[in-house]
Specification:
globular, five-stranded mixed sheet, 147 residues, 4 helices
């Protein structure tokens, strides 16, 4: 399998939306259509620090990753939050997720970021096999308060 990772263009909307919906279904959640529109617009707004990449085999989109640059009180350069990573079910275990993570690492380095970080659900054991291979667990736990 030859995987190509590239930034998503406006012509990729339909394929991205299908994978984004599958990702939300995986986590048993949903978003209104206007949030899909807003998120897609942010990816293509040069003033936004949000980005989306797709992993392709030929013309077929096999996976997506969303990442966000943000400042840190700890470093002069930015950090990168890898917010969402998803591989189509029939493409899992074929290097798609690894290729997408590597592309985010490359984008982060190119912009002077010193860290890429992300979260996953504690039940996402299959993904954690990959994550344990490509990153270090920080030991920190997430706390949140929905407002």
């Amino acid at each position: 399998m030859t995987i190509t990772v590239r930034p998503l263009t406006t012509t990729d909307r339909t394929a991205w939306q299908a994978l984004w919906k599958d990702y939300l279904d995986f986590y048993k959640t949903s978003l209104p259509p206007e949030q899909f529109d807003l998120t897609w617009a942010r990816f293509h707004d040069p003033a936004e620090p949000m980005f989306a990449l797709g992993a392709f085999e030929n013309e077929a989109m096999l996976g997506i990753v969303h990442y966000i640059f943000h400042r840190s009180c700890w470093t002069p350069g930015p950090y990168v939050y890898l917010q969402d990573l998803f591989t189509a079910a029939d493409a899992r275990g074929k290097g798609v997720g690894r290729a997408l993570i590597a592309a985010v690492y490359a984008a982060a380095k190119a912009e002077g970021a010193s860290r890429v970080h992300w979260l996953t659900h504690e039940t996402n054991a299959k993904a954690m096999v990959l994550y344990n291979d490509v990153a270090d667990r920080s030991g920190f736990l997430q706390y949140r308060k929905v407002l």
